[in-house]
Amino acid sequence: MAAKVESDNVDSHRSGYLSKNVWSGFLFGVGFIAFFDEAVFHQLLHWHHFYDKSTTAMGLVSDGFFHAFSWFATIGGLFMLADLRRKQGFWPARWWGGVLLGAGGFQLYDGIIQHKMMRIHQIRYVENIIVYDMIWNLTALAMILVGGILLMRTRNKRERPS
Amino acid sequence: MMGSDICYAGEQLSKAAPQVLLALPFLFALCLYLAAVAVSNRYRRKWPYFRTACWVAGISLVLSSVTGPLAARAHVDFTAHMAGHLLLGMAAPLLLVMAAPVTLILRTLPTGAARTLARLLKSKPIRFLSDPAVAALLNVGGLWVLYTTELYRAMHESLFLHLFIHFHVFLAGYLFTAVILYIDPIPHQKSFLYRTLVLILALAGHGILSKYIYAHPPAGVAEAQAKMGGVFMYYGGDAIDMILVFLLCLYWYRSARPRKPLGESVSKTV
């Protein structure tokens, strides 16, 4: 009985924080994928260049803003998660949906707008770059798709128990 | 022989003068802070050791930036200059802001003088300067002017410019950190969201300038040095800003804690 009351309690809290779960996850997702990009492709593999001479001015500005935003979002998103947990409003499936949507969205923006249109840098400086671009952007689309499905399935709390 | 000796001595002097002139105000600030702690501890609650430690560490970082080997190398080595800039304009201000010097002064001064200071903090110029957007513009905008105009070269030739720019970098860095975090009391405070947006814009301005320096060396800086300095500025700035972002989020987290009515919170915890 106590457990039933408890779970009802959690549910009611969760449904009060539907969008906060998404935002927290989304911010963390954007921050995490940007951090991953920086750590793996810039620092470890040295595929990406710090500055590629073909970068447009717009690309430099876009890169700067997204870098700053994602740096803040990683930390801010996790503090929002802590806030959700102390208010008993954390909903893991919905939060992960937000993470995947944020990560996929940023990766797609990075892969199409920043790499290709603004030419901030290429994924790797090799001949068959198209293969890298395809894998990069398809991964992004897959993340958006799975994230979107998760968000759809956690849209309304009342449908879940049945 | 004689001539070159004089020349050498003159060069040494010209290098020592800015170091001494830059260091003195900070040494004075160190003594003042320690004296204020000693005086106010006699008739008030003990001033936290943590704050005093922050002040001492912050002043040490300033001194290591404007004097000694780093300051000497900064004239010829752009990466050393950038290391000094990160210490003077970002790391030291963060520590000094955490030391809450205004709070310390307010509790040390006699009531009348403390009231005058509080009134001064409410004045129009302070209100204008303490807008995070203005502070960010002074801070990052100043750096853009320094590194993208002839100012950087001129700084190495004029003692006045050298002093002015170094004090500006420090003061703008301090002001910016202070109005993002609000450790010390200040009237007309802005919301967390506003400060978050300003911090992101400032961070972006700093990062973009780093990459701009990488591609366009400031006047008188060799390309290889500009590249190293730019990368150093980019990642060094990120590291220090990460602490700033963490603290801002932490203060938001604390201020947003749920406050339940007394009766309710008792029944929930059972």
Descriptive notes:
The complex is a heterodimer of chains A (162) and B (270). Chain A is mainly α and 162 residues long. Chain A has one domain (19-159). Chain A contains five helices and no strands. In chain A, helix 2 (18-44) crosses helix 3 (57-86), helix 2 (18-44) crosses helix 4 (92-117) and helix 4 packs antiparallel against helix 5 (129-153). The radius of gyration of chain A is 19 Å and the shape is elongated. The model of chain A is unreliable at 1-9 (pLDDT under 50). Chain B has 270 residues and is an all-alpha fold. Chain B has one domain. The longest helix of chain B is centred in the first third of the chain and has 42 residues, at 2-43.
Outline:
The complex is a heterodimer of chains A (162) and B (270). By secondary structure, chain A is an all-alpha fold. Chain A contains five helices and no strands.
Break the fold down into its secondary structure elements and pairings.
The complex is a heterodimer of chains A (162) and B (270).
Chain A: H1 2-15, H2 18-44, H3 57-86, H4 92-117, H5 129-153
Chain B: H1 2-43, H2 49-66, H3 68-74, H4 78-98, H5 101-108, H6 111-121, H7 124-129, H8 132-148, H9 151-155, H10 159-181, H11 192-215, H12 223-255, H13 262-269
Helix pairs in contact in B: 1-2, 1-5, 1-10, 2-3, 2-4, 3-4, 4-10, 4-12, 5-6, 8-10, 8-11, 11-12
Keywords:
heterodimer; A: 162 residues; mainly alpha; disordered N terminus; B: 270 residues; 13 helices; 83% helix; globular; disordered C terminus; membrane (chain B); cell membrane (chain B); transmembrane (chain B); Membrane protein (chain B); transmembrane helix (chain B)
